[in-house]
Amino acid sequence: MKRASVWRWVALLALLVVPLISPAMAAGSRVLVLAEMDKAPQAETVAALNAELQRDGVDVSVLAPASANRASLTGARLIVTVGSHAAHTTVALETATPVLHVLLSRSTLDALGERPGSAPRSAIVLDQPAERQIALIRLALPKHERIATIAGPETPALARALNTAATRSGLDTRSAEVADIPALYPALRSVLEQPAVLVITPDSQVFNSQTVHHVLLTAFRLHAPVLGFSAAYVRAGAVLGLYTTPTQAGTETAAVVRQVLTGQALPSPTHHALFEVGVNPTVARALGIQLPQADALTDALRAQEGLAP
Amino acid sequence: MIERWGIRARVTFVAFVPMLVVAALMTATHTGLRLSDLDQALRARAQAHARQLAAASEYAIFAGDRETLGQLADALMLEDDVAAIAIRGADGQVLVRTGRFAATLPPTAPYPARVQTLETPDGRWLRIVEPIRPSHLPTEDVFSGGMVPANNVQAPLGQLIMDMSLARLQQRRSELLWIAAGWMVIVAVGSLLLARRMSRSVSGPIRETAEAVLSIGRGELDRRVTVSGGGSVRALAEGVNEMAERLQNAHASMARRIDDATSELRARKDEAERANLAKSRFLAAASHDLRQPLHALGLFLSELAQQPLDARSRQITGRLTASTEAMEGLLDSLLDISRLDAGVLAPERSVFDMHAKLEHIIAGQTSAAAARGLELRLRCPPCWGLSDPLLFERIVANLVSNAIRYTPAHGRVLMACRRRGERLRVEVRDSGPGIAVDDQQVIFQEFVQLGNAERARDKGLGLGLAIVRRLVDLLGHRLELRSAPGRGSVFAVEIPAAPQPEPVPGDREALALGHFGDLQVLLADDDALALSAMTSLLESWGCEVTAAQSAGGLMDALASGNAPDILITDLRLGGATDGLALITKVRAQPGLAGLPAVLISGDTAPESLARIQAAGVQMLHKPVRSARLRALMHRLLTAH
Questions:
Q1: B142 chain-A contacts, CB cut-off 8 A
Q2: How far B158 CA lies from chain A's nearest CA (Å)?
Q3: Which of 54-83 (A) contact B at CB < 8 A?
Q4: How far is A186 from chain B (nearest CA, A)?
Q5: H/E stretch holding A56
């Protein structure tokens, strides 16, 4: 059975169960979740969210963005959008209900623009903070003293933040900006001319499923370890991965929802506090790099950020 | 046309054509499949090459690595049949181009949507256009959130153009076709040989059987068919052999029977010939031995008749003379039959006066007719016939004599002659009892006499019609008999008519039957009685006779006597010298060459008659009638 359909069943079960076990928060505590349940990460996130909120008896409704309208959005205390599509839908429907966007990138969030009126809005972006990434590089690849970044049309700010953080950590930086895919290879050659750790920025115009293979191959040929932003990158050949899993995203979202339902205001947009480190030991071995275990790196990184391991 | 084919052609056809058809179908199918396989294999190989190169080129195109692309293309160029390769980037720019492209193929679009396969019309080139697509790696891109446009995913990185030369395929194709054609020829020739061998094995025995049957039909009954094979062919061969065996047996049996029958026939023929010879000898001997005394008797009677006798004696003498003449007539008839059977009678045809001849015959028969109280008449216009006059006279005289003999008293016998075209028809009609149809053939046999069961000798011997039949056959005339019981009989003889000849003076010189005054006659006869009788007769005619019983005696008498006027001798003289030799001897005497000579003989043996005829001597048969002797002597002496 496919993973997506498993999550779909989990979500459905959650929808049936939640109203029965949370009578205390029944009135005026309804949370509407807009999510594409046929997408595995979103379904996984919703499941984690539900699992957290079940305990509090929060009334959670899940609605597909495609079937959402202005009426269906009214009456909820909070709207949680999962994924960029749901985020764009709430913007388009111009609802006055407070909205929390999760499972989207910083650049997507920025692209949503300002909300009309004074309706509160917040987000938890998927982008890992530049400092965390640099810290991971310092932890896992202490011998590498340079990072290379390529900024696409969506991520110049992110690249700049990375460079800034790297410089602050005492790392050299090489960076390039590309407008389209054909310019990617020359840019890669350029930034990896000298030994460096390639940090992939989540710019779908440049780094997508078509190019990831080539980017990883090019970096490999140039003996450059890659830090990817998802588990898929690690599986495809990135030496390191730093990412927040959908379950972690759901858990964190549940915490924010809980705060809002208890009367607190929406916090300002933020990064995920929960994360995981992925390691591809095969590629690392091929590159002659000795890497600590992924769990060890995760724990060490969390420890640096003052979080419980 | 097939209906007229022989067994061999049919068997060959039946065995050869299906095999050829099957071979053609199998060869065509196999070759077609093989060609199709070759074609598909080449296309599949070409597409596989293209796909592999496209996949391998993906990263090099991403990297813009022309060197790598060139190496990849060069590596592929080493493959069989790859003629040219070009790789274009997404923007249509040619990144690599190697080999020679087929000019006949149209240029391809810069961005082909899918794999294209093009082939030149002449079938020499194949072009594969393969888009180079990026491989898709699922990254669960939560960041993009599925917002990446689909067309971006499908957009090809570039395009691979590969030309394959089909020359090798065509060569292989033609090789296959030649091999197929070769196999076809081999199969055709092989199957034809096999079919012919089979047909020979089938038709051979039948042909041999047919030839054997033809040979047997030509009479080679010992021909046999070699029995081989089985079934109907064996049965046929065995049947033919059995048939030939039976034919041969039947033929041999028939030949044996024919041989037996032939030898039996030959034996019977020999027996018959011996019997006939014996009969002839008997007749000859009998007539000779009978003639001798009869001859003497006749001569004595002739002499007696010249003596002065009283009435009673003269009547007895007349009766004796009549009886003797009847006996002489019977003997003459026997002699005639003998001579005719001996085949020594050579007809001497001449033109004669029919009327005179018939009158002469009538004259000879008038007394007999009168004695029986019959009316005998002649009706004949003046006409001339062509035949042997003497033999013809014998024929008609026999018929008239017969008619007189069998016609009852007061009946009529009519002799008539009339002209019928180129022939003369002489009829002898009588008012007698007639002859039944059954008897009309029988009466021509010897010694057959109708109405004479008692065989009264005054009715003859029954040889008359037998002689008539033989004479008619000898002369080549036609004899006809029309008769019915109670309505009389008509015997008719037809002879060729002839124009009247020029009158010959002296032809019918009438010889005076006068006295042979002082005629010197040499007479020889070994029989004393006959010699005596003849001497008396001749002397009664006024002749001077010098007689002897042997040739030697006569020669002696001749030497001492007068010159003879005529020689009369018996054929048998009881010594080494017979009558003929005596005549020769006498004629050899001086002054006697051409001496008239008369040979008298009772011998009717065919060889004797033939010898006498060959010598050209006048001959009288015993018993000699005095009148006949006298007439002959007259004729000889007159001619002399």
A1: 41, 83, 103, 126, 230, 246
A2: 12
A3: 83
A4: 8
A5: none
Question: What's the per-residue H, E or C state across B96-110?
Answer: EEEECCCCCCCCCCC
Report residue B101's pLDDT band, with 50, 70 and 90 as the boundaries. confident
Residues 148 through 177 of chain A touching chain B, CB cutoff 8 Å: none
Candidates B331, B397, B336; CA nearest to B368 is B397
Higher pLDDT: B575 or B217? It is: B217
Q: List CB contacts (< 8 A) between A236 and chain B.
A: 137, 139
Query: Is residue A279 within 8 Å of residue A294, measured between CB atoms?
Result: yes
CA distance B567 to B430: 45
Contact between A232 and B63 using a beta-carbon 8 Å cutoff:
no
Chain B contact set for A233 (CB, 8 A): 139
The count of other CB atoms within 10 Å of the CB of residue B260 is: 10
Cβ count within 10 A of residue B447: 11
Average the pLDDT over B474-498 and give the result.
90
Q: What is the 3-state secondary structure (H, E, C) of B136-168?
A: CCCCCCCCCCCCCCHHHHHCCCEEEEEEEECHH
pTM for the model: 0.50
Buried/exposed B534-549: b ≥16 CB within 10 Å, e otherwise: bbbbbebbebbbbbbb
* Mean pLDDT across chain A: 86
Best mutation target, B69, B88, B142, to test chain A (most A CBs within 10 A)? B142
> Per-residue pLDDT for B347 more than 90?
no
Phi first, then psi, for residue B495 (nearest 5°) are -130, 160
Over residues B455-484, the pLDDT tens digits come to 555 556 677 788 888 889 888 999 999 988
Three-state SS at B524:
strand
**d(Cα A41, Cα B140) in Å, to the nearest integer?**
8
* Residue B601: Cβ-neighbour burial (10 angstroms; 0-12, 13-18, 19+): buried
Q: Cis peptide before B623, with omega less than 30 degrees from 0?
A: yes
State the pLDDT at residue B139. 58
CB contact under 8 A, A204 and B62: no
Interface of B with A (CB under 8 A): 58-59, 62-64, 90, 134-148, 152-153
Count of alpha carbons within 13 angstroms of residue B319, beta-carbon side: 5
Distance (Å) from the alpha carbon of B61 to chain A's nearest alpha carbon: 9
| B82-89 and B158-165 strand pairing | antiparallel
Looking at A193-268, list the stretches that DSSP marks H as alpha helix, in order from N- to C-terminal side: 212-221, 231-236, 246-261
What is the DSSP pairing of strand A270-271 with strand A240-243? unpaired
Model confidence at B282: pLDDT above 80:
no
User: Is the Cβ pair A212, B134 closer than 8 Å?
Assistant: no
Which domains, from first to last, does chain A contain?
3-126+246-271 (3.40.50.2300), 130-243+275-304 (3.40.50.2300)
pLDDT for position A300: 93
Structure tokens at B61: 């195109």
Q: Is A12 left (phi over 0), alpha (psi -120 to 50) or beta?
A: alpha
Q: To the nearest 10°, the Cα dihedral for B230, B236, B241, B242?
A: 110
At residue A173, does pLDDT exceed 90? yes
Report A:23-52 residues touching B (Cβ under 8 A).
Answer: 39-41
Each residue of B569-622: pLDDT tens digit?
988 887 788 888 888 888 888 888 888 889 888 776 777 778 888 888 888 877
How close A25 gets to chain B, by Cα (Å)?
32
Residue B346, token pair as written in the block: 């050579």
* Contact criterion met (CB below 8 Å) for B92 and B160: no
Q: How many angstroms from the chain centroid is the CA of residue A109?
A: 12
C-alpha B461/C-alpha B402 separation (Å) is 11
Nearest CA in chain A to B90: A182
